[in-house]
């Protein structure tokens, strides 16, 4: 391991969240998110007027209502959980006798990557480690974090050495943490659905290997749990727009699984989400629960993200330690 007296700056990064659960705040957030060519790669002259003139006016109010349904007294669940992860990871590294400062950054919204990097530079760290909280690599998530980090560095002269954690979809401690969470919550008569955020099929055809990472994660968990083929399924959620996304779609799977496989009890876990957020707390826990129960299902359980659990914090800490040892 490198000299423990070195000061290590860690940037813990997630996707982002609106500042408030209002239509105007959601509109600002979605504009930043949906104008990133990593997310939507349509020509600007075609996409921007459509987004500003049609999509945002129609969607912002609806999305804001969904955020309002999960908003807490502390604000955004994603941001609050991320702050807890930041604090606990800092504590873990201190316990490991590592001189580290953990900053939180969002690819879109606040706190920004610019602020996180500057805070660490102001503290004169000797090395930066960027940890995107996306276990499975995708150009639309991890790639966007890399872009945001590089954009900030473009304007800096005093750049320390840095490392960027590309993915951890097969990390032993990540797989164990998910397997343990499933063991604690899943009932013996439940069918297990692994739901990941989707990407347009076109992105995969252009070289994005996200789906393969998702499959590898699921197979590793299934092997750890000893599940048979008829006890689980893999699907993808949160599609947007009219073009085809990678399949099977979570909502379609959940709608038809009782008729096709006589499944009446399911548990859903979302291994690609490091923190619970709109896509898990509202889309899965509320919308897809309703879909399943309205189509013959008897019971539906959402297994929470790893969030700030002890297993998760230790896993993230070990990822950081492995970078210092390499």
Automatic annotation (TrEMBL):
Its EC number is 4.98.1.1. One of its GO terms (biological process) is heme biosynthetic process. It catalyses: Fe-coproporphyrin III + 2 H(+) = coproporphyrin III + Fe(2+); heme b + 2 H(+) = protoporphyrin IX + Fe(2+). One of its GO terms (molecular function) is ferrochelatase activity. Fe(2+) binds at residues 197, 279. This is Ferrochelatase. One of its GO terms (cellular component) is cytoplasm. InterPro entries: Ferrochelatase (IPR001015), Ferrochelatase_AS (IPR019772), Ferrochelatase_C (IPR033644), Ferrochelatase_N (IPR033659). It is found in: Cytoplasm. CDD domains: Ferrochelatase_C (cd00419), Ferrochelatase_N (cd03411). Keywords: Cytoplasm, Heme biosynthesis, Iron, Lyase, Metal-binding, Porphyrin biosynthesis. The lineage of its organism: Bacteria, Pseudomonadati, Pseudomonadota, Gammaproteobacteria, Pasteurellales. Its main location: cytoplasm. Catalyzes the ferrous insertion into protoporphyrin IX. HAMAP family: Ferrochelatase. The keyword Cytoplasm applies.
């Amino acid at each position: 391991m490198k000299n423990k007296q070195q000061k290590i700056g860690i940037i813990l990064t997630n996707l982002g969240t609106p500042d408030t659960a209002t239509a105007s705040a959601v509109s600002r957030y979605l504009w930043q998110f949906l104008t990133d060519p990593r997310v939507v790669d349509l020509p600007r002259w075609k996409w921007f007027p459509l987004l500003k003139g049609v999509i945002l006016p129609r969607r912002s109010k609806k999305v804001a209502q969904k955020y309002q349904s999960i908003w807490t007294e502390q604000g955004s669940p994603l941001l609050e959980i991320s702050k807890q992860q930041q604090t606990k990871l800092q504590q873990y590294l201190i316990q490991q006798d590592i001189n580290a400062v953990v900053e939180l950054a969002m690819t879109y919204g606040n706190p920004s990557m610019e602020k996180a990097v500057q805070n660490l530079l102001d503290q004169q760290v000797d090395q930066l480690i960027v940890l995107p909280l996306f276990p499975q690599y995708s150009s639309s998530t991890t790639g966007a974090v890399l872009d945001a980090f590089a954009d900030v560095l473009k304007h800096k002269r005093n750049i320390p050495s840095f490392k960027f954690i590309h993915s951890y979809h097969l990390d032993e401690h990540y797989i164990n943490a998910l397997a343990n969470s499933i063991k604690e919550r899943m009932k013996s008569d439940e069918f297990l659905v692994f739901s990941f955020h989707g990407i347009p099929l076109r992105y995969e055809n252009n070289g994005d290997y996200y789906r393969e990472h998702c499959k590898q994660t699921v197979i590793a968990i299934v092997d750890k749990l000893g599940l048979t083929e008829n006890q689980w399924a893999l699907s993808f959620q949160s599609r947007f727009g009219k073009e085809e996304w990678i399949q099977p779609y979570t909502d379609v799977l959940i709608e038809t699984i009782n008729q096709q496989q006589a499944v009446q009890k399911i548990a859903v876990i979302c291994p690609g989400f490091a923190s619970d957020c709109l896509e898990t707390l509202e889309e899965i826990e509320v919308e897809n629960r309703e879909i399943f129960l309205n189509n013959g299902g008897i019971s539906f359980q959402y297994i929470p993200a790893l969030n700030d659990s002890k297993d998760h914090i230790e896993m993230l800490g070990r990822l950081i330690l492995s970078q210092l040892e390499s």
